[in-house]
Amino acid sequence: MSTFSSPKVFLTAPFTHLTGSSDKKTLANSSSREKSAFGKKKNLPPIENAPIIAFCHLSWSWVWQRPQQYLSRFSKTHPVLFVETHASRVESPAVKLSHQAEYPNVVVAEVHIPEARWSDGDFVDQQRRFAIQTILEDELRGRFEDPILWFNDPMSVVAFAGHMEERLIVYDCMDELSQFKGAPPALLEREESLVRKADVVFCGGRKMREKRLPLNSNTHFFGTGVDVVHFGRARNSDLSASAELAKLKGPVLGYFGVIDERIDYALIAKLADARPDWHVAMIGPTAKVDPKDFPQRPNLHWLGARSYQELPALTKAFSVCLMPFAINAATEYINPTKALEYMAAGRPVVSTAINEVKTNFASVARIAPTHADFINCCIREAEKPSTARIQAGIKLAADNTWEANIAKMEAHISHADAIRRGAASAKAADVRSDLPNTLSTGLAYV
Question: Beta strands of 47-122 (E only): which ranges?
Fold first, then answer.
């Protein structure tokens, strides 16, 4: 299911409301709700504890990526409502709430739109706004008032920005989504609108930031972080390597992550052909590609999705960690989360020459401009891993945790809130001069 809708809007259809049980009810027209549910102003809590309503193009339960990593940690001090929109086989729009046992301050709202209406942008925009306003007046009444609106999905800006009595708008730009396969035509226009509306913009790559800075001066580079405790388990003697990989005879060259149009499939085939005595293990769910088109070799293993909890043991079995990305529009701006995860696990890393890896990780990863270079780098690291690069990677990971990034992001959010409320001085508009930023020379990424 994709949340790359191309919404537009009208406010009429009744909404079927699901709460995870079998009870259903038809709710009133949303126009009166929009006037009443968010009408009263209250004393605002400290911005450090303000509720967050997040709109994401990824599902909370899918591959654990930047949105879940950041928002699960923000939930330690902020109540978080995570909103995901699906094109589903339902007769009428429906919403389902679920509470996350591991993250008690997170509520996930799945908004399901009939597949038959998915191309009707007006309908999609209206229904997902109506869905969220409805649950905020009903089950979640009083829990997400005066929220920070947190956008990972630019397509949701029309439905929500300016309609939720929000305290602040944050845009966390994790990818150049307009360059991905299947991106809707309206995405570029909506993303520009979101950048202009946002009180603060965070970008996952330097090039992303450079592109958006002319539209919003309060735009900052905050790249990927890493859970060093979780992935550092791969370096502990008490964790056994994954049994399914340990049984393979010879070195294992491994990748974990989404398998989609960003992977260089010709490179994967050449890598398997180069050395029949090693194995190439590709781990992760597929998206927007047909597995029937994948190259097949006796020593090439497409293993499918694995849980986040399994990744340290899988990575421990890798002789070399791979970032075999194609050089194309979809990879022009990506800053792979897996880079620091591989490093925290203490494994050698070999990557194709994508921009953000060259900029951020050249001191650790072997970066190969050609297929032949990639294969040679893998041979080199499989036979004699660079201890110096591995140790540098462990340190780089330790210096760039998710928590370290969040502390800096909170400072930007607090400052943006002060400016919006008119509490900052006349000089406060120059945010970058005083506030933390991953462009500062003291940060490990530089």
Answer: 52-56, 80-88, 94-100, 103-114
Residue 281 CB contacts under 8 Å (≥ 6 apart), including other chains: 245, 248, 252, 253, 254, 255, 301, 303, 314, 317, 318
Instruction: Give the separation between CA 160 and CA 390, rounded to whole angstroms.
Output: 45
Alpha carbon distance 59, 305 (integer Å): 15
DSSP 338-383: HHHHHHHTT--EEEE--HHHHHHHTTTSEEESSHHHHHHHHHHHHH
Distances (CA, A) of 446 to 105, 308, 363, 440: 34, 28, 11, 7
Nearest Cα neighbor of 20 from 145, 108, 142 is 108
Domain 16-198 has CATH 3.30.70: no
Give the angle 347-267-340 at the CA atoms, nearest 5°.
25
Average pLDDT, the chain: 85
Phi, psi of 44 (to 5 degrees): -80, 140
Q: Provide the pLDDT for residue 42.
A: 61
Strands 94-100 and 103-114: antiparallel
Over the stretch 202-234, which tens digit does the pLDDT of each residue have?
Answer: 998 898 899 999 999 999 999 889 999 999 999
In sequence order, what are the beta bridge partners of 17?
Answer: 95
Distance of alpha carbon 82 from alpha carbon 67, whole angstroms: 10
Confidence tier at 117 by pLDDT (50, 70, 90): confident
- Chain-centre distance of CA 189, in angstroms? 21
Residue 54 has pLDDT above 90, yes or no: yes
Contact 8, 120 (CB under 8 A): yes
Q: Looking at the domain 228-398, which fold is it?
A: Rossmann fold (3.40.50)
Note the pLDDT of residue 233. Answer: 98
What number of other Cβ atoms are within 10 A of residue 66's Cβ?
A: 23
All CATH 3.40.50.2000 domain ranges of the chain, comma separated, are 228-398
Give the tens place of pLDDT for each residue, 347-359. 999 999 999 999 9
For 37, 282, 333, 442, the CA distances from 208, given in Å and listed in that order, are 36, 28, 6, 21
- Residue type for 191, please? E
C-alpha distance across the termini of the chain, in Å: 37
Q: How does pLDDT run across 241-295, given as a tens digit for each residue?
A: 999 999 998 999 999 999 999 999 999 999 999 999 999 999 999 998 999 999 9
Angle between helices 265-274 and 371-383 (to 10 degrees): 50
- The span from the CA of 261 to the CA of 277, in Å, is 28
Output the CA–CA distances (angstroms, integers) from residue 76 to 49, 134, 405, in the order listed.
Answer: 9, 25, 15
User: How confident is residue 435, by pLDDT bands cut at 50, 70 and 90?
Assistant: low
